[in-house]
Structures are given as structure tokens and as C-alpha cells.
Amino acid sequence: MLPQGCVRLCPACGHRELGMDASLYRKLEFLKSRLSVYAGRIEPVISVEAPERFGYRDKVSLAARYTGFAWEFGVLRHDEMIAIPLCPVHTSRIRTVIALLEKALPPVTDFPLVRLVISGRQLTFILKTREVNALTAIGSTLFTELNNAGIEGVWVHLFPSSGRKVFGKGGWHLVWGKEYSSDENGLRYGPAAFQQLLPSLASRALDEAEAFLDPKPGMLVIDLYCGTGSSLKRWAALKALSAGVEQSGAAVAMARQNVPGAIIWQGACSQRIPQIREWTGRFDPDEIRLLYANPPGTGLESEITEFIVSILRPKRIAYLSCNAVTLSRDLKLLADGCYTLKRLIPFDFFPQTRHVECLALLQLDEESGRL
């Protein structure tokens, strides 16, 4: 039986008709199949209590369609738009905002909206145009109503070639409110920033990583794919000597505000190997090096993996993966580089869906020495 408000045609939540125990069992079995070499080492999936498995999604990216008299927002399935106005996984704020926009937005002739992105309290309208006059189509009354619904910043992103890619380069206009908001931990984020949807689980994963890495004052911590700085902030608070790498310019800007004075290099991690080498080279070669990595689904770049095992040689690694296939690949390469897997801890960051993430904790074989 579908949860109330769920649309059967919507393809987003593959486990929506399963109970909590059945869903977690399937996720664990999926990880065992993709990480078969380590199947016996995978720990039980850590999730939230049953009531928290609904109404948790506070960040959405939804297709938009004008029906001729109102707007609809939902997901695409084989290019067919499926409206999901009452999705039970969305927070009440998301549902309130969707209900408000359905009838309050101007028609498509004046406002060529193709996608709605809400990241917490930041909202972005993506318009398939480069015409700046489209910015004036929104009435000021709407901003007041959005503010009453909990939105703090409204953006328009002009993206004339909008398609599968959500955001393009440039074309960002703040049309009302603040350019950033703050999350439950006081971390600032903007309209395009990635954040975990369940703060309690995200904190639990960082707790496990911190306990394993055990960074002390004077130790070096390299933080790859550091995002807006939630992990960097931890290492800084512990007085470790830390440096991060992040490709997104928007995320880097937020990270520099969230962790003032932190060393953060923008770009692909593989492109910042020279900076990492130069920075670590300033310190005693016997100083303990630690690594935290939270890469996208493509996993660690091959150049980065080679750099880790042949040159950087961190004593301990905490690797949070959102793709079991690339994690399996990277664990093999790290094992070949004399790293021993200590724990594999799965996290249910997206309840009701098939998605599951995994924290891998690895330690360098001390007898291997430096290559």
C-alpha cells in the first residue's frame, strides 16, 4: 500500500511500499552483492527512527510544467512529467511552497520556468531563457508569502540550454532576500550547495570518521571533496592542521565562511595534487597524515588514488561513498597500496529509496613503510 500523498507513477522511491526492516535488509543485501569481497565485514545499516523516514527531504529539484491555467511540479519519467504536490517524503515547507507556486506564478509566456530547486531555505527558479526581463514577472506579494513559508532567499537562474544538467555557468540573480542561509549546525549554504538530508545521520557518520581518524593537534588532515566545510570545521575545532579541496566555486565560498582561515583549494582533486604535495612538504615527514574523502558517485579520481598510495600515505583514511560499485574499485586499489579495511558502516541517508551510502575506514599497514 502506498503512503498517503504518494503517486504510483512516480519512480523516485523504490522502497516506498516496504517497511523499515525490509528496506534496510534489501539495502544491506545490495551492498553485499556489490562489495562481495567484503560482504562479511559490512555492518548493519544505520538509519533513523520510523517517524523520521517521512517528511525529511528539505532539498528538491523538480521539473516544472504549465498546464494552461496553473503550474505543476514533479519528476520526469521517460520525458513524461509526473506531478507530486503532496509527496510524503518532502518536508511540510516543501509541500507548502509547491502549493503556493502552483497558482501564484505568472504564465509560461512571461516566465519560462523549467525547473524548481529548493535547498533548505533557498529557492531557485531555473528559466530556459537569457532574457533578463523575465526577472520582473514575479510579483512582490509572492516573496512575502514565500518568506512566511520559511524561504529566506529567492533566485532566478537564466539557463537557455537547460536540459538534463540542472545548473549552467553564470546567469544567477538574487531577486529577493538573503544570498545564503544557515543549517542546524550553523553552517552557511547557498542555493546550489549540496547537503545531507538527515542531519542526525550526517553527524553520526562524521562522528564515526572522527573517532577512527582521531585527529590531534599538529596532525595533518587532507579533506577531499570537502563541500561547504562540515567536515573541515570538525578538524579545525580539534586543532588539527587541515586543508580541503572542492570543485564547486559556490561550495568553496561557503566553506571559507564556515571555516574562517581554512586552507581550501578550488578545483578537481586530481588537479590540486601539486598544492597538496607542497603543503604537506612544509611539515616534518614523520608527522601523522590523515585523509577524509567524500567523493561523488564516480569515486576517487585515478590520479588521486595513485597519489594516496604512492606519495601521501596517510596513516588512516575515512571514505564516505555514495556508490558501492566505485567504492569496491577504490577499496581494491587502496588494498593494493597496503591499506587494511577496518570497518564498513552503511548509512540510510535516503529512506524510502534504494539508495544507501557506506563509510569505509582503512588503516595503513605500518610494516609497509613509505614507498
SS summary, helix count:
9
Shape: globular
Taken in chain order, the helices and strands follow as: HEEEHEEHEEEEHEHEHEHEHEHEE
Q: Number of domains in the coordinates?
A: 2
Mean pLDDT: 94
Question: Architecture of the largest domain, according to CATH?
Answer: 3-Layer(aba) Sandwich
Class by SSE composition: alpha/beta
In percent terms, what proportion of residues is strand?
A: 15-25%
State the helical fraction.
25-40%
CATH superfamily of the largest domain: Vaccinia Virus protein VP39
User: Class of the largest domain, according to the CATH hierarchy?
Assistant: Alpha Beta
Strand order of the largest sheet: 3-2-1-4-5-6-7
Tally of extended strands?
A: 16
Gap between N and C termini: 57 Å
Structural notes for this entry:
This protein is α/β, with parallel strands linked by helices and 371 residues long. The chain has 2 domains: 59-189, OB fold (Dihydrolipoamide Acetyltransferase, E2P) (Beta Barrel); 199-368, Vaccinia Virus protein VP39 (Rossmann fold, 3-Layer(aba) Sandwich). 27% of the residues lie in helices and 25% in strands. It is built from 9 helices and 16 strands. The chain has helices spanning 20-34, 92-104, 140-148, 199-213, 230-237, 249-258, 273-280, 302-312, 324-336; strands at 59-66, 71-77, 80-83, 113-119, 122-127, 153-158, 172-177, 181-182, 188-189, 220-224, 241-246, 263-266, 289-293, 316-321, 339-347, 357-364. Helix 8 runs parallel beside helix 9. The N and C termini lie far apart (57 Å). The mean pLDDT is 94.
